[in-house]
C-alpha cells in the first residue's frame, strides 16, 4: 500500500476509498442495496480535480515517461505471434490477456438463467458531464437521489480554432519520440507489405438475415468486427455472483480487433468502435460514414484533413505527420477527427490528486458517467444504458470503455474492448442465446481492467462523444 494513502478511510463493506472519511447514502444505495439504508450517514465534501484535456505537447507528453526512460525503454515483439510490439514491462499482462482471448466455449445449459433480479435497459438522462466530479464523496458511488447544485470545474477549450503560425509554433512545440509515438516514431513510410495488407482490408462475408420486420436482408460482416458483444457481457455479469453492480453503454457498439500482423494501430481501431456506435444508433454525424467503417489509411487521411482545417493542428508538428506511417495516435487525433466532422466530443485528462491515485479518480469519473443514465429507484444488479462508449488512453495503449462494475470484495473494474485481442470463441457462441456459463468470471477476465492494471499509470485521457442524446449541459 502507498504510505501516502495508508490512512485514507474506506467503506466498511468494501475497499472503495473515501478521502473525506464520510461514506454516503448514495454509495450504499448503489453498491450495497442489500444493506438497510437507515444508517446515520453524512456525506462529506473534498475537492478534487478533473482537468479537461489541453491539446498541446504538454498534454501528450504527460502520458509519457521521462526522457531517460525514452532512451532506456525497450520494446518486445509478442512471442505469441500476434504482431504487436509491446514494452517489456507490459509483456506479462499482454500474454495473460492472450490466454483469456483463447477461452473455448464451456458446457452450458440451454435454459435461461434464474436471476434474483433482471438487468435494466434504460434511456439515459441528459448527463452533467462530471459536474460533481470535484466532490470526493463520488468515490462512494455518486448515486444520491438529490444533490445540491455545485459549481462545475473549470473547462478549458478543447477545440483549436485555427493553426498557429508555423514559425511561432516550431519554437514552442517539441517533436515527440518513441515513448509517445511508439517504436516506429521516426519512420517516413510503413513497409510496402503492410500498406498492401491495410489496403486489402479484412475479409467481408455476406449473408442473408431476417430483419425485425420479417423481410430478408443482405448483411455484410467484417472478419475483425463482432456485433452483440455487450449483451453477452451483460448476461455474464448478471450470472457472475462476484459482481455486485455493473453498468454498460449502448449494446450497439461493435467489438473491433486488429488484423494479424498489422501491429499497433489500437488508436484507429478504437476510433472505429466509436464510429460503429455512431452508425448503428444513427446519432448526429452518422451520415459522414458509408456502409463500412473507414479503414486505417482512410482514418489517417481524415486526421490529416482535420489538421488542415485547424483542429488540434499542433499534432502535425508533434508527430511529423502520420500519413502512411505506423506512428501511434492518441486522444488529440481522435478528437480532431470527430470535431472536423461536426461530431461534438469532450476530451479530459485525469491525474493524481492530493488524496487519490489516478486510477481512483478515473473510477470516479467513469462511475459518474454511467450514473447519469441510471435510476436509483431499483435494486437491479446490471444496468444497460444507451450511452456512447468512451475512448480511453494511457501511456502506450488505448482501449474503449463499455462499462464499469463493483464486485463483492469492493474492487472496481473498467469493462473494456481491447483492440489488441479478438473475442473468445466462448463470447461468440453465447451471442443470441440465453445459455448459462459455468464460469462467467473466466470469460469476463479479458474485458476487465482493475487497479492492478491501471495503477501503473499516473495519467489517463478519455474522450466522450456528446451526441444530441447525451449532450452535456453548458
Automatic annotation (TrEMBL):
InterPro entries: UFSP1/2_DUB_cat. It comes from the Eukaryota. Residues 106-122 have a biased composition (Polar residues). One of its GO terms (molecular function) is ubiquitin-like protein peptidase activity. It holds the Pfam family Peptidase_C78. Residues 148-163 have a biased composition (Basic and acidic residues). Residues 243-463 form the UFSP1/2/DUB catalytic domain. The keyword Chloroplast does not apply. Keywords: Hydrolase. Residues 102-131, 144-169 are annotated as: Disordered. This is DUF1671-domain-containing protein. It comes from Aspergillus parasiticus.
